[in-house]
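Sequence in, structure out. Go.
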Amino acid sequence: MSITSPKGTFGIASLFILCLIGSLYFAYDKSAAYDELQESYQNTQVAVDSSASIITNTITEEETRTAKGLIQGSFDDLWGGMDSTKILDYYTKDFYILEHGEIWNNDRIKLFMKTSLDRESLPKRVNRMEYHIIEKYGDVINIAYDNYGDFYQGDSLVWEGHWLESALIIPTETGWRLRMMHSTRISVEQTK
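Output:
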């Protein structure tokens, strides 16, 4: 049996030898890539295990107050007050939030606010934070907190929300701003 190609005829033995050479080349190439990956992992592991690998800066009391103020203010003015004119008071121009499986930017937040304000009866939102971590790495502040939102119609509590969230805060020309957030909904039953 033979196989015809544009350049001629290959016998089974020739085809077998070509396949063997190709598989050896692939195995060698794969092995080299694996070795490089393993070396990279080991170098990373050494860096992670080293106490000098993560440099945290001392965060000042003023920076801590600023970070908490940005979080609380953004939820009071933006998510509670639905005031889209204040977005850049809290968020960078390229801000994004990972919100329960979706990526929201400032335009998506404005759309959410407009849609919410178009409703006939918008509940009043009262926000409360419990902060877990506030750390500074270089010029970036990392913050993690529980966010509790109580929603009222008149004097009646109609819904309680709870989110576990984190955020990165960076210095900008106009002061500290939130660059990104991550939000995970927590079922209210878990919190009681």
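Check: Strands lie at 2-5, 8-11, 91-99, 102-105, 124-137, 140-153, 156-172, 175-185. The domain at 61-191 is CATH 3.10.450.50 (Nuclear Transport Factor 2; Chain: A,).
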